[in-house]
Design brief:
Blueprint lengths: L1 H31 L3 H4 L12 H47 L3 H15 L4 H11 L5 H24 L4 H9 L5 H8 L4 H16 L3 H6 L8 H11 L4 H36 L1
Subcellular location: Cell membrane
Protein name: Raffinose/stachyose/melibiose transport system permease protein
Membrane topology: Multi-pass membrane protein
């Protein structure tokens, strides 16, 4: 009887998930492949014709190929930010986990505040202007690294807690110290949690809308999410083009999640158990 109830609950959960996620996604795909006249109905009717290529070309050519530039900017932003996050967060987590002190307690408190306290937009803009990084991609990269550092440090630290200290001592006896100890002994063992951090932060940064909107205004350094915001005003009567733009923006993170969702769950679970 208990197994039957559990199976029924799982079936209901799957149905609800399908209604919440799959139905809007199906409407988006259907609208993206319709012509302008039929797309205005915003229904689930099958397309009378399939102007897929024309819709795709119109979206790509819009505003002097701004979507292509945005894809390049989003790719550079995501890759650079994730690399810096993995390197600095893993190193910081190793130090915080291995060296317990009053200074470490203060650092732990600051890490937690990074998850709790919301970012201050105006002071951050002032700081970027003072550094000459406002409206620049390097400045936005630093912002993304700072905003995702606390979350990544906590994941890395939970995983490092399960690595025996005897490995550190053995490596030190063999002559490894400092960076050599970390990158040659500890970091290779962090592969599961590193994959989790890379995938989760990549999706979050690629889909980020607020930070690029505030810190890199204009089309030169626009990301894909900002172009969607601009396209809403440009294509407010051309739903087929607007939804085609949404499809093109949704594809990369969706594929990333489909192919690596098991690794994400495995890394999160391993860190939670070992913490």
């Amino acid at each position: 009887m208990t197994a039957l109830r559990r199976l029924s609950a799982e079936a209901i959960a799957l149905v609800l998930a399908g209604v919440i996620f799959l139905i809007p996604f199906a409407l988006m795909l259907l609208t993206a492949v319709k012509d302008q006249t039929q797309a205005t109905d915003l229904d689930f009717a099958w397309p009378a014709n399939w102007p897929i290529v024309q819709n795709f070309v119109d979206v790509i050519e819009a505003r002097d190929y701004v979507l292509l530039r945005a894809y390049v900017n989003s790719t550079v932003l995501t890759v650079a930010s994730v690399v810096l996050i993995v390197v600095f967060a893993s190193m910081a987590a190793f130090v915080l986990q291995r060296r317990a002190s009053r200074l470490g307690s203060v650092a732990n408190f600051l890490v937690l505040t990074g998850l709790i306290i919301p970012p201050a937009i105006v002071p951050t803009i002032w700081l970027l202007q003072a550094l000459g990084l406002f409206k620049t991609l390097p400045g936005l990269i630093l912002i993304e690294v700072a905003f995702h550092m606390a979350y990544s440090v906590l994941l890395f630290r939970a995983f490092i807690a399960a690595i025996p200290r005897e490995l550190d001592e053995a490596a030190q006896i063999d002559g490894c110290t400092g960076l050599g100890l970390f990158f040659r002994v500890i970091f290779p063992l962090l592969r599961p949690v590193t994959i989790t951090v890379v995938l989760t932060t990549s999706v979050a940064i690629f889909n980020d809308f607020v930070n690029p909107l505030y810190f890199t205004p204009g089309d030169d350094n626009a990301t894909v999410q900002v172009t969607l915001y601009n396209f809403q005003s440009q294509y407010n009567t051309q739903w087929n083009l607007l939804f085609m733009d949404i499809v093109l923006i949704t594809i990369p993170p969706l594929l990333l999640f489909i192919f690596f969702n098991r690794k994400i769950v495995a890394g999160m679970t391993a860190g939670a158990i070992k913490g």
